[in-house]
Structure formats: C-alpha cells, structure tokens
Amino acid sequence: MVLASLDQFNGTATKPRLSVFCSDKQLYAMVVDDQNKRCLFYGSTLQKSIRQDPSGTTIEAAQRVGEELVKACIDLDINEISSYDRNGLARGDRMRAFDIAISRHGFLPR
After folding, report:
1. pLDDT, tens digit, 9 for 90 and up, residues 18-70
2. d(CA 110, CA 106)
3. Which of 83, 33, 41 is nearest to 66 (CA)?
4. Where are the alpha helices (DSSP H) in 1-105?
5. Which InterPro entries match (predicted)?
C-alpha cells in the first residue's frame, strides 16, 4: 500500500489546490481547501449550467468550466492556487481549452 505524502494535499482557503480529471469524454475540476477538508468549487462538462447549448462541444464546455472556476475564485477572493493536479492526464483538447481559460486570469502556478 502506498500512502500519499502530506505535501501532496496542500490547499488552504486562500491558496487552494486545483484538481482536474479528464475522462474519455468529460472534464471535471475541483478547487480544494485541504486544511479544512472543503471543496470550494466543483464544475464539470456534464453540468447543464455549464453545457448551456446541448449541441455545444465538450471542448467549449471545458472552457466554460475554467471560466466558472475563475469567477468562483474571484468571488472567494482567491488569487493563487497552491498546486495544479491533473491526475496524470495532461493532454487533449478539453484540457487545453480549460488551461487557456484559467491561464488568462493567472490561475496557473508558476
């Protein structure tokens, strides 16, 4: 059994961890405060509020997930994330669209 390092879970209320999972068809994103064990934002390409137009692509929806994440962070006065966990899947058009949406607002760690 492999135990995760405590450094891996380092999100706080003001500097949370961003976790993104991209399946074969969808994208899921969470902003997590690990210290208080709280999810500050959750969004996915499956949500009707993000999908908007049923004929829209999952790439467009992934971009909207990123835009909604940025809005939520601004509302919560979050200016920076502690880490960006892509769950080992860092390729594809959905990930690229999501990354572009959040990088426009400086939410990618340096």
Report:
1. 999 988 889 999 999 999 999 999 999 998 888 776 677 889 999 999 999 99
2. 9
3. 41
4. 48-51, 58-75, 93-103
5. Ribosomal_L18, Ribosomal_uL18_bac/plant/anim
pTM score, whole prediction = 0.84
- For the record, the structure tokens of 91 come out as 């390729």
Domain that holds residue 97: 6-103
The span from the CA of 64 to the CA of 98, in Å, is 8
Contact 22, 94 (CB under 8 A): yes
Give me the number of domains the chain comprises.
1
Q: What kind and span of H or E run contains 32?
A: strand 27-33
CATH number at residue 71: 3.30.420.100
Residue 34 maps to a domain: yes
- Name the DSSP letter for residue 46: T
List strands edge to edge, sheet with 83-85. Answer: 38-44, 27-33, 17-22, 83-85
81 falls within a domain: yes
